[in-house]
Design goal:
Elements: E1 2-7, H1 13-24, E2 28-32, E3 37-40, E4 47-50, E5 53-54, E6 60-64, H2 70-81, E7 86-87, H3 91-98, H4 100-109, E8 117-120, H5 126-132, E9 138-142, E10 151-154, H6 157-170, E11 174-178, E12 186-193, E13 196-204, E14 219-222, H7 227-240, E15 244-252, E16 255-262, H8 268-273, H9 277-288
Parallel strand pairs: 1-2, 1-6, 6-7
Antiparallel strand pairs: 3-4, 4-5, 8-11, 9-10, 9-11, 12-13, 12-15, 13-14, 15-16
Length: 300
Amino acid sequence: MNIVILSKGAANYSTQRLKEEATTRGHDVKIINYAKCYVTMESSNPVVRYKGEVIRDIDVIIPRIASSLTMYGSSVVRQFEMQNIFTTTSSIALVRSRDKLRSMQLLAKAGIGIPKTVFARETADLSDVLDQVGGAPAIVKLARGTHGRGVVLAETRKAAEAVMQAFYVEGVNFLVQEFVAESAGTDIRAFVVNGKVVASMKRQSLDDDFRSNLHQGGEGTPVKLTDEERKTAQKAAKAMGLAVCGVDMMRSNRGPLVLEVNASPGFAIEKVTGHNVAEKIIDYVEQNAQRTRRKDRIGA
């Protein structure tokens, strides 16, 4: 098959691993910087151009879209979808997963455990917002963000209201979440491919930072999931309509709580666990690319 990996960083570990596995199995692979693509729209002729030429004769795209380029990247993916080219991540699922409010609403609707969360913008009822998540300490975060950026742990009520006030003044949407003390500084990343967890690790902050993201200096170790955690990860991926994703969860006294479903998870989990995640993704492509593309049926 002719496979295109849509990636802004050709040298990224995840991009190189996907290329390596696909090439080893006899596929023709190209890495294209989606940020440099442009789309031409006319009736019944969806086209994606790159370096002055039409991108032709491809069977599969594997999107690796950066959070900062979600809207542009999803538009490029959508243009390929209009050509009935198979994609491992649909444009609508990509946009859905990057919207923290939208994703939390879908997870809650599906009956999946999440930290109690309040979404706000221009409200003066900051005290009531905080009460809704059990008071301080609380997590205050921007509605859009990734890798633990734009996230603050407010340890006191005064600090929480000050952070919310700052976001209010800036006119940005924000989320306030309950602080789960028993999991502070740790979380679990479950890598899901085609409805199955193919690798899992625990991420632990190395200092007093409550964020465990590897991008924030956290350390990863292999972890065995409980049956409930495995089912939660699979259910979360399904709720978001993502065939390939990373599901981040906390272990709490009331069971696993999903923090985020990442549509373009990094492959550091391969180094931590020794599991070949890239191979599982190429397996998924080989098993599904020739089938008729199924319509995304998620409700939002």
